[in-house]
């Protein structure tokens, strides 16, 4: 293991954090029992392995360029039962994902139902924070469970107690260090556009556009692929605004256009701001190339935002 450390490797053991490569290597050399005889679980994802060392301590290892980039070890205070939920929801009647006082949110309702079973306040963690009226085909959450319910019993209970516009698709026991947000490798969003005439049945689930130039649309979407500073496509975000978009494209079925964008993470309103720009470009309402907008690192040309109801959190990959 010591020979496979990435130059930017970081180590966390309980409350101890080491960020320097040489210091990480030195610490592990002096405490080899922490990385001795690791037994990995079946939860092997794109860039993350979970397991237990010879002492029975949970360990999580992430990789970059086939080298070890992050090592997290807990010797104490780790949960006995961490559950992962895969859920879907219609966001039309909610003020977004994140819990808010006196407002109905997805996180708030789920946390309430889970807390009632555990007889203590439990705030569930989600892979992504969707805005008000944004939907999810696949959202992933986790929480630490102290009840005696099995996964099957949790699935049955939650789907009986939750409103009909929230569905729990699966419940799975995970490794103690699994984290629905921090362990994400890829998020995929879909934006749905109704072409041609408006439909009264789709006003809460799509954005209507009568005409689009698909060559221009494809050109702008493909240019977003790569690693950029997306300050021009973020609202109220400070700090590091660099993100990587892996894929961007679209599919058409009958009169429904679906735009797909996947990446390692997204800034606040980033997807909806990108959608607004590419649609304006494809409807000849702007001739500014998206790469020029990105280079500006300002909101000068991205003051408008696409409607929330057309956006879906589509897939979470680990």
Shape: globular
Helix content: 10-25%
Residue share in β-strands: 25-35%
**Radius of gyration computed on alpha carbons:** 22 Å
Output the CATH class name of the largest domain. Answer: Alpha Beta
Structure classification: alpha+beta
pLDDT averaged residue by residue = 96
Low-confidence stretches: none
Query: How many distinct domains?
Result: 3
Query: From the 3D coordinates, which CATH architecture of the largest domain would you assign?
Result: 2-Layer Sandwich
Order of helices and strands: EEHEEEEEHEEHEEEHEEEHHE
Task: From the 3D structure, determine the CATH topology of the largest domain.
Answer: Alpha-Beta Plaits
Distance between the termini: 22 Å
Oligomer: single chain
- Total strand segments: 16
Largest sheet: 10 strands, mixed
Q: What's the number of helices? A: 6
The CATH homologous superfamily of the largest domain is named Pseudouridine synthase I, catalytic domain, C-terminal subdomain
């Amino acid at each position: 293991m010591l020979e496979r450390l990435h130059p930017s490797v970081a180590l966390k053991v309980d409350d101890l954090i080491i960020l320097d490569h040489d210091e990480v290597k030195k610490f592990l050399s002096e405490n080899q029992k922490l990385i001795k005889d690791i037994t990995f679980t079946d939860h092997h994802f794109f860039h993350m392995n979970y397991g237990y060392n010879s002492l029975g301590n949970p360990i999580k290892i992430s990789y970059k360029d086939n080298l070890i980039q992050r090592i997290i070890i807990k010797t104490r205070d780790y949960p006995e039962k961490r559950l992962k939920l895969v859920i879907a929801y219609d966001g039309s009647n909610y003020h977004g994902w994140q819990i808010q006082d006196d407002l109905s949110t997805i996180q708030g309702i789920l946390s309430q139902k889970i807390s009632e079973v555990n007889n203590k306040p439990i705030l569930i963690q989600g892979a992504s924070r969707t805005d008000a009226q944004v939907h999810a085909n696949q959202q992933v959450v986790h929480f630490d469970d102290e009840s005696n319910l099995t996964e099957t019993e949790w699935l049955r209970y939650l789907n009986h107690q939750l409103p009909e516009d929230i569905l729990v698709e699966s419940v799975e026991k995970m490794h103690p260090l699994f984290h629905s947000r921090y362990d994400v490798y890829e998020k995929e969003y879909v934006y749905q556009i109704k072409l041609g005439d408006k439909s009264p049945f789709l006003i809460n689930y799509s954005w209507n556009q009568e005409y689009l130039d698909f060559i221009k649309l494809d050109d702008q979407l493909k240019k977003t692929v790569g690693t950029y500073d997306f300050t021009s496509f973020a609202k109220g975000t400070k700090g590091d605004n660099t993100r990587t978009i892996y894929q961007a494209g679209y599919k058409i079925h009958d009169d429904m256009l679906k735009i797909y964008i996947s990446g390692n993470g997204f800034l606040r309103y980033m997807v909806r701001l990108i959608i607004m720009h590419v649609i304006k470009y494809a409807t000849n309402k702007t001739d500014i190339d998206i790469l020029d907008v990105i280079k500006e690192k300002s909101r000068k040309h991205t003051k408008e935002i696409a409607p929330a109801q057309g956006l879906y959190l589509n897939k979470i990959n680990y």
